[in-house]
């Protein structure tokens, strides 16, 4: 697998120790949403959609999030699931996804704290042979695009990130695609990290046009959809 972007070797001198305990492994087939908050009635200002419960569909084979046209507030409706387990910490976070192939639709899985630190995996319908691995810190994004040897919209593939105190390792189908130790993350005992699954529509072409593209609802009958199953969290036990 080819890696576009920088592979970074600088090692941080982080000193914080996460003394959190009591988190055990979580496996979510995503057949139900009992352990999630289903976002409803809001969505970041610049997005072209508002999170709407009815766009998040559960089934025996996982979860599907669709983009709809029934939003009262924004051009479109979209969906988000937030896992109820909060105060998450270092560990491995993984999921299987089938991305949308509609330009402008984002299929994502990420950890977020205080809208200040985010560790992301984002697939966009602009290019289904790329996966975006991103880490946000101090309001700065650090995305890296990874060339993938398959079409992310055609089949299930697993995507994961391994969050450690001084580095983050992203993997696709069990193969390491990126390892970064150049970006600090706020330690988990200083912020409330939550795990989020969402799919949304970008309508402002001037923002990130080369990343997701501008969403237009397909006129050919295709339903803009993103699928998810088998999410898991394996915390690193801090001694
Ligand atoms: C992944 O999800 C599928 C469909 O829900 C299920 O059949 C399978 O057992 C799951 N795999 C794992 C490793 O949980
Ligand atoms: C990632 O980089 C860190 C720091 O350079 C290193 O300790 C770790 O072993 C690397 N992990 C993998 C999977 O390459």
TrEMBL record:
List the molecular function annotations (GO) for this entry: hydrolase activity, hydrolyzing O-glycosyl compounds
Residue intervals passing through the bilayer: none
Domain of life, source organism:
Eukaryota
Q: Name one GO biological process term.
A: carbohydrate metabolic process
Signal sequence, renumbered to the chain? 1-19
- Note the InterPro entries from the entry: Beta-glucanase-like (IPR000757), Beta-glucanase/XTH (IPR044791), ConA-like_dom_sf (IPR013320)
Query: What's this protein's name?
Result: Glycosyl hydrolases family 16-domain-containing protein
UniProt organism field: Lobosporangium transversale
């Amino acid at each position: 697998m080819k890696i576009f972007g920088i592979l970074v070797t600088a090692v941080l001198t982080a000193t914080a120790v996460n003394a959190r305990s009591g988190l055990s492994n979580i496996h979510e087939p995503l057949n139900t949403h009992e352990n999630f908050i289903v976002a409803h009635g809001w969505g970041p200002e610049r997005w072209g959609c508002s999170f709407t419960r009815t766009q998040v569909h559960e089934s025996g084979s996982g979860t599907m999030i669709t983009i709809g046209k029934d939003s009262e507030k924004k051009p479109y409706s979209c969906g988000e699931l937030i896992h109820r387990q909060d105060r998450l910490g270092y560990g491995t976070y993984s999921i299987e996804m089938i991305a949308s192939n509609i330009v402008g639709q984002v299929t994502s899985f990420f950890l977020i704290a205080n809208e200040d630190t985010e560790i992301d995996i984002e697939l966009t319908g602009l290019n289904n042979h790329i996966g975006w691995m991103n880490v946000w810190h101090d309001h700065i994004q650090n995305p890296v695009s990874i060339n993938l040897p398959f079409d992310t919209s055609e089949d299930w593939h697993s995507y994961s990130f391994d969050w450690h105190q001084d580095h983050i390792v992203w993997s696709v189908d069990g193969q390491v695609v990126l390892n970064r130790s150049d970006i600090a993350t706020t330690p988990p005992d200083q912020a409330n990290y939550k795990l989020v699954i969402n799919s949304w529509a970008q309508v402002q072409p001037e923002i990130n046009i080369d990343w997701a593209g501008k969403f237009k609802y397909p006129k050919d009958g295709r339903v803009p959809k993103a699928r998810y199953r088998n999410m898991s969290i394996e915390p690193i036990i801090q001694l």
